[in-house]
Amino acid sequence: MKYQMEQNETVISKLQNQVDFLNKENIKLDRQVQLLKGDENGKMALAQYDAMKKEIDELMFENTALRSDVQEGSR
Q1: 39 phi and psi, to 5 degrees?
Q2: Is the model more confident about 73 or about 8?
Q3: Can you tell me the distance from the alpha carbon of 75 to that of 62, in angstroms, rounded to the nearest whole number?
Q4: Longest distance between any two alpha carbons in the chain, whole Å
Q5: Measured between alpha carbons, how far is 4 from 25 in angstroms, rounded to an integer?
Q6: DSSP state, residue 60
Q7: Which residues 6+ apart lie within 8 Å of 19 measured at CB?
Q8: DSSP for 18-32?
Q9: Prediction pTM value
Q10: Are 9 and 50 in contact (CB under 8 A)?
Q11: Lowest CB count within 10 Å: 8, 15, 48, 55, which one?
């Protein structure tokens, strides 16, 4: 039981690191979009931003689901 708890804590820690990484990348993307909004290809940049934002949101949802599964497994 102790081993399983340690493994679950390790997985949770890794997942939290992934969330932190995604949040940092999202901030970088937001900065890039702000820079690109001013150029003549702003519409294309916004479309790329929207696609990347959607991908980030999907990854964060999947990460949340995985964390939930891990927490349920530790009970």
Answers
A1: -85, 170
A2: 8
A3: 20
A4: 60
A5: 32
A6: H
A7: 60, 63
A8: HHHHHHHHHHHHHHH
A9: 0.47
A10: no
A11: 55
At 18, list the tokens.
């992934």
Q: At what angle do helices 2-36 and 42-73 cross, to 10 degrees?
A: 170
- Amino acid in position 64: T
How far apart, in whole angstroms, are the C-alpha atoms of residue 47 and residue 36?
11
Instruction: Give the model confidence (pLDDT) of 2-39 as tens digits.
Output: 998 899 999 998 899 999 999 988 988 887 777 767 65
Which residue reads 């820079």 in tokens?
35
The radius of gyration of the chain's CA atoms, rounded to the nearest angstrom, is: 17
Span 32-47, mean pLDDT?
68
Residue type for 65, please?
A: A
d(CA 8, CA 16): 12
Give the pair of three-digit tokens for residue 52: 């990347």
Structure tokens of 36? 């690109």
Name the domain count of the chain. 1
